[in-house]
Amino acid sequence: MSKEPLPSNDDFKVEVATRYLESDSNPDEDRFVFAYTVTILNQSEIPARLLTRHWVITHGNGKQQEVRGDGVVGEQPRIKPGEGYQYTSGTILETPMGTMGGSYQMVTDEGDEFNASIPEFLLSTPRTLH
Question: How far apart are CA 15 and CA 67, in angstroms?
Answer without folding.
Answer: 19
